[in-house]
Prior knowledge:
- By secondary structure, chain A is an alpha/beta fold.
- Chain A is built from 15 helices and 11 strands.
- Helix content of chain A is 37%, strand content 13%.
- In chain B, strands 2-6-7-10-1-11-12-13-14 form a 9-stranded mixed beta sheet.
- Chain B is elongated and about 100 Å long.
- At the A-B interface, helix 9 of A face loops of B.
Amino acid sequence: MEKHKLTACEIVEEIKHSKTDSLTVTKSVMDRIESLDGKIGAYVEVNKKGALERASLIDKEKQKGKLAGVPVAIKDNICVKGELTRCASKILEGFRPPYNATVIEKLLKEGAVLLGKTNMDEFAFGSSTETSAFKVTRNPWDTDRIPGGSSGGSAACVAADETILAIGSDTGGSIRQPAALCGIVGLKPTYGRVSRYGLIAFASSLDQIGPLTKSVKDSALLLEVIAGYDEMDSTSVNREVPEYIRACVNNVKGLKIGIPKEYFIEGMDKEISDSIKKAEDVYRQLGAVCEEVSLPHTQYAVSVYYIIAPSEASSNLARFDAVQYGFRSKDSQTLMQMYENSRAEGFGAEAKRRIILGTFALSSGYYEAYYSKALKVRTLIKKDFDKVFEKYDCVLTPTAPTPAFKIGEKMESPLEMYLSDIFTISANLAGLPAISIPCGFTKHNLPIGLQLMAKPFDEETLFRAAYSFEQNTEYHKKRPQIK
Amino acid sequence: MSSEGKYETVIGLEVHLQLSTESKVFCGCSAKFGQSPNSQTCPVCLGLPGTLPVLNEKVLKYGIKVALSLNCEIADMLKFDRKNYFYPDLPKNFQISQYDKPLANHGYIFIKNEQGEKKIGITRAHIEEDAGKLVHPENKNFSLVDFNRTGVPLLEIVSEPDLNSPEEAYEYLTALKSIFEYLDVSTCNMEEGSLRCDANLSLRPAGEKKLGTKIELKNMNSFKGVKNALAYEVKRQAQALDKNEKIIQDTRLWDEQRGMTVSMRTKEEAHDYRYFPEPDLVPFYVDKDFVEKVKKEMPELPQQKIERFTKKYGLSTYDATLLAQSRHVAGYFEECAGILKDPKAIANWLNSDLAAHANTENKRADELGLSAENLVGMIKLIKDNTISGKIAKEILPEMIKTKKSAAEIVKEKGLAQISDAQSLEKLADEVLAENEKTVRDYASGKENALTFLVGKFMQKTKGKANPGLANEILRKKLGEKLKKKNDYRD
């Protein structure tokens, strides 16, 4: 039996009833990685020895926990004690954190088995995983195409059954967009729902850690494990964590879904808009109410995002200065040379572009016109959603404007690349929970995803709506044939 | 008119106060001074990737205490900002500080000056984190960095440009230190860096409204250093202005050894710190009840103490101010005043002789080892005419050194005052006989001749004569002599 094809919920059941054990599952996943990852390139580090040892220990001690024995892959920007954690950047060469991120502590407490680190866009700057300093990650549905990004490695390894669960991070769509492009489930929780302690920051006011999974129930299960208040993160919210798995009910009768007209723009991929229309029909047939709504400030989201996110990033990335850890350029004679050479050689082009953008936007004389104004528009975007959520339970949109594109296709045009996140950015700006689930395929057999957004801390509505869709469609059952 | 008198000096001070909380401002590490390098660090204060700051509530409490003591308005909302600049002692390459919404605004304190008292405005006070320390080993091509100080809480207190002389700046610092000592929020040690001071200074022609070009002064390591650096700058700028030279706006370092200031950077080279709101610390409302609670826990402050001392003990404002400078000295005074109901005499001794002793030993008067009982005991001996004030002054060092009471020392050395009139009269006769010229001066109306004779009299008795009695007897004897003379003339 190919255990790597199972979902986490299935594995938990099987282990509970002694039908399998963690070592068997972990071995199966490791074999899959060994046979396939040369093609996919999802991982930047695989800790085979550590994973197998932990799996046998969990079996031997019959460890309990919500994820007892379940393998999980971790995005390279989340700190795991003693393990290379480099954000797919040369500048973090050799960096092994002396501490675990809070989500890692929580995963370990619930019995998860960590497999290794997944590839990503350098410091999560990108939508294709191509800005990684280490390697290219390929889309399991078409290995000439990108898996999306920045959590491209996490999405690809879930889609290719090279893991059971994966953890990613989402600043402007970095979980949802690759999930859509790889045909899996990706959730960005409410800002403050999951501790960011140990997540190497890109844009602190937007970043959120979340699950990438094969099913909606797995997403709920994994969120249940990683969510919760953390005294190490002042932005985490002290609010009880519901049993999300119980929210996975197949019933959307009376659910009020808003369809924002601003998300159906002229010139958008017809296969995608058609899939979303079909999804609307599915919901209607299931008894939900779908109505057009308006989020009038949507058109400003990308501009606002590309001021706020790089501004915060420019400050967050200042610490990579070659003083304490990471890459240090050789042969620098002065402190300034050490800074300049190390950062010039250590950061890739996109990282430099964003640092310069952010530094400019925060400069004296420009701050008011850019950063300060962007914050004001951010508030307006949030208010748009508040208004819609007075009447509607959730909002349905496409996740990405296009299916997976060819490797290299958009690397010469940063602006075109930035538009990949056009539908996902608003949820980050407004701090809302949002989920992407499979809702169709293009004629070239590339996955299409739909996005649902809900009120802050109403992940339960997302799970209910997503689970109902999943249970009444077949898209999630289709697996990629990896060539 | 001296060249300096032509100009008005305008000074504003920026004081960085290290708060003596047990742990750092954004992590749980100890904030203790003087530990071995990098022994008091954790991923958070090392600024390691992925770590986040969490505010230490004690820092807020101390900050509010200081704000209240400086009569400031306390902000409704606590908001932090990032100040971005690269330096190896700053592991995140940004400092968490407060920019547009400081903890406290619009305060004031009173300082002593030549006219008596002066109100000095406090512009603002805000919370920030301290940086680490660079160590440069000699003859090595590398530097080392110690992160123990990184994240130690600081309060930056900015004054209005209300100070008009280096002396006023000195008094302002003294007053601040006194307040902080009362609050017990900092060790206020400039040499250890727990209190640091930068100054802004400009000169303008007396009477002119527009401020002159401002320079910033750094690197002063003591209150005296601040005063000297400012005095140097006043002189330098006055001379330049006399010669119609333009003052260049710059930041200057005080060179203590050479006793001069040196330009560090001009305005053109100034940093753009790219301040923006710290996204890792959510702004929060400052709980009014919390502020009220802190208010209730506030100790009596120097100004209140001065008022109470003048009222309760009938002290002059001058004496009360001196005593109140240190809460320890003030406490010592009250202990003494509880034993002996002569607060004025106690204050006199504390503010003059004991203060002088303390000064030479670099201690406070209450730290000299002289118990309240012993000080009061000595004053009692003066009051009941057992010893003179002069003798008391002489035995004071021994009392401090040996911890013996005044009575013991007086007994051992036979220093008790001669108060018996008969012996004194005999001695007075001798004095008058030995100083006939002065007696004649006295007769011709020179009053200070009497002072001279009293001096001679005291010399003869080695100071043991009761000065009041001596005076009285001499006057009487002289009167008798004069009368005889007049009789003769008649």
